[in-house]
Design goal:
Elements: H1 6-13, H2 21-28, H3 31-41, H4 44-53, E1 60-61, H5 62-66, H6 74-86, E2 90-93, E3 101-104, H7 108-117, H8 139-157, H9 174-182, E4 186-189, E5 192-195, H10 197-204, H11 207-220, H12 229-239, E6 248-249, H13 255-266, E7 270-271, E8 279-282, H14 284-287, H15 299-306, H16 312-315, E9 318-320, E10 325-328, H17 333-340, E11 344-349, E12 352-356, H18 359-367, H19 372-381, H20 396-407, E13 418-420, H21 426-438, E14 442-446, E15 451-454, H22 458-474
Antiparallel strand pairs: 1-3, 2-3, 4-5, 6-8, 7-8, 9-10, 10-12, 11-12, 13-15, 14-15
Helix pairs in contact: 2-12, 3-7, 3-12, 19-20
């Protein structure tokens, strides 16, 4: 599973009142949703199970499923089966006098078959619009609008007023500002907007991951906006299946989805030249939502990759010397604004800015919540090609000094999380510990004392519960 879909995965699989079994059934009635979850959220082994069982009309005995996996891969098999059960794609059947078996749930199986074969008249993949030729919008126009809107959002986060939104979009809407504050990406105090540690980590992500982070925040806030979360999810999954440059009709959209068009336009995910028009265009930010293509980590590089660009920023533009002097070969207001967060810029040319890393500039960034490792990560990701010819890329003296400036005010790092302990056996301990490592929530572990510490407990608790039920049924 890609990192950009982890937050969406947590939203879907974490137990909550807003996503009971009936909600999953409503979601899976849309073939576009079933296909998107299959493509985006399932590991290869889970996909293999689904495809192998998709056209089997009867429940599959557990013993038959176990023969599909090598004996040494039992842990991977249990992880895949557990994931399918939590997403309510796979159902376990236990009848008296009959062996335990599994079957794919409906309507997921039926919807996936429709999506793969192109059958039915469900219209869940959008209804193309017959827009007039003079009303048509080019892909280049869509890319320009998406870039302008998205960089405007990032510019607001890093506190830059030099990054303007497109003329069509206007100023950043209050709903967008509220969503960024709600997600803890910015800290607003009066008229001052400061980026947070989570916000800086957000800026460092590739664009597809950024978009999904925003959309999950939108999902979590949907009920407060009076929206149906199922309609929201279904529309997001549908957007990932649309064709770039093609206009689509609004006739079959629900009231919730019509409201979403206005909100997603603020982020550059949807384009409408007129909110009253009866059609809309998905931008590249929308059509790549469910893409399996690998993504770059940096904001500029990720966006340039998404938009098919080959700018200097995408190749690396930062040069830093052992005396902490910094040279950035960029004219991007967004990149310059990010550099200003932790460097003191002194000179600006048409295609370059120069400055220096100082104790005061780095400490200012740290006081805002940005970590030294995040600064180092940014410099490494955007290092100029000439610097990459060096074995260490970044000068070790600079890396060490940034970390020293950080620990001046820190002697201990605290991490909020949950400790799991008191496992009765080594086997009972290894399974959940490895699962926590696989899903990226493991912070610390001690194999000798059978203890581990995680940042989230919901998924681990469900894993332990499923393992306990499996032992009870097998015992």
């Amino acid at each position: 599973m890609s990192t950009s879909s982890i937050r969406l995965f947590e939203y879907l699989e974490t137990p909550r009142e807003s996503l009971p079994g009936t909600v999953f059934k409503r979601l899976y009635k849309q073939p576009s949703t079933a296909l998107a979850i299959f493509r985006r959220m399932l590991p290869h082994l889970a996909k293999s199970f689904v495809m192998a069982m998709l056209y089997i009309p009867r429940p599959l005995p557990v013993t038959d499923l176990e023969t599909w996996v090598r004996p040494g891969s039992r842990r991977e098999r249990d992880t895949a089966v557990g994931l399918l059960e939590r997403l309510q794609i796979l159902k376990r059947i236990a009848e008296p006098g009959k062996p335990r078996s599994y079957i794919l749930t409906n309507p997921f199986a039926a919807s996936l078959r429709l999506a793969l074969t192109g059958a039915g008249n469900h219209k869940s993949f959008g209804v193309p619009s017959n827009a007039r030729l003079e009303d048509s919008t080019t892909v280049a126009q869509l890319d320009g609008f998406a870039r302008s809107q998205w960089e405007g959002v990032l510019g607001y986060m890093v506190g830059s007023t030099a990054i303007g939104l497109s003329n069509e979009g206007g100023a950043l809407s209050p709903s967008v500002k509220h969503l960024l504050q709600y997600g803890g990406l910015v800290d607003v105090k009066g008229r001052n907007v400061d980026i947070t540690q989570d916000g800086f980590a957000f800026v460092l992500q590739e664009v597809n991951a950024q978009v999904w982070t925003i959309l999950v925040l939108y999902l979590e806030n949907a009920e407060h906006l009076g929206m149906d979360s199922v309609d929201v999810l279904s529309f997001l999954f549908m957007l990932g299946s649309l064709e770039l440059g093609q206009s689509y009709s609004k006739a079959n959209l629900t009231e919730t989805q019509l409201q979403m068009l206005l909100d997603l336009r603020d982020f550059g995910i949807i384009y409408q030249d007129n909110p009253e028009s009866d059609y809309y265009y998905p931008t590249r930010l929308a059509t790549t939502l469910t893409s399996d293509a690998g993504a770059l980590r940096s904001a500029s590089a990720g966006f340039d990759s998404a938009l098919g660009s080959s700018s200097t920023d995408a190749k690396g533009f930062v040069v830093i010397e052992t005396n902490y002097r910094l040279y950035a070969y960029t004219s991007s207001p967004l990149q310059i604004a990010i550099l200003t967060l932790f460097a003191r810029l002194s000179t600006r040319y048409p295609n370059m800015v120069a400055g220096k890393l100082t104790r005061e500039s780095v400490r200012r960034a740290i006081n805002m919540g940005i970590t030294g490792d995040q600064i180092i990560d940014f410099l490494y990701t955007h290092a100029h090609s000439q610097m990459r010819k060096n074995p260490n890329v970044l000068p070790p003296t600079v890396v060490d000094q940034i970390r020293l400036w950080q620990i001046e005010g820190e002697r201990m790092k605290s991490t909020v999380g949950f400790l799991f302990k008191d496992f009765l056996s080594e086997k009972e301990y290894e399974g959940p510990c490895q699962y926590a490592r696989d899903i990226g929530v493991l912070v610390w572990h001690n194999d000798a004392r059978r203890m581990f510490f995680v940042t989230r407990h919901e998924q681990i608790a469900m894993y332990l519960k499923s393992q306990k039920e499996r032992r009870r049924e097998g015992g």
